[in-house]
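fold description:
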Amino acid sequence: MPISAADLVVFLTAALTLNLTPGNDMMYVLGQSIKGGTRSGIAASFGIAAGSFIHLMLVAAGIAVVLSHYPAMFDAIRWAGATYLVWIAYKTLTSAAGPLAQGSEKRSLLAAWRDGVLVNTFNPKTIVFMFAFLPPFVRPENGSPLLQLFILGMIFNFGGTAINSLVAVFSGGIGAKLSQSPRIARGFAIASASLFLVLAARLAFERR
């Protein structure tokens, strides 16, 4: 068995606690849900999951070690992510408020997913976090370390996606009901743009 039952219980407890703690990913899903409704928030959740999977593959390849030894590379990725979030905030404020048109819904969901992938991928703290959090639960006597790392990473990713999707359901449902009013819809656009700007500031100025 790649992971013992005792280690799995400890890992699940720690992972659940971390996933329930509001962070950058949850804030981004909240902003997308307010902006585009539940489906947009869920699409963003799956985009973040795809970005986390990319980080998991990079951790397995040892890229986190490179980032930790080259601060300039870390900072370049971090600022690229912050800049992209500012761009999303700008597009949110300048786009038409109100419910999505039926013809543009598919494109909007794809855009929410794509932005989730990019926002998560351009957050180098995610890969450094995975590199610090996952390896302590890997035990050589349980078999392939890479297999254990992959299983643990996917469990963590699945839990985060489920929780973020629940955030999208609750916040998106409220937003969909209140966005029928253009004035309220504009307020939601400002609120979601503000969340994206706060997230950009956190990504840009938080220490590693």
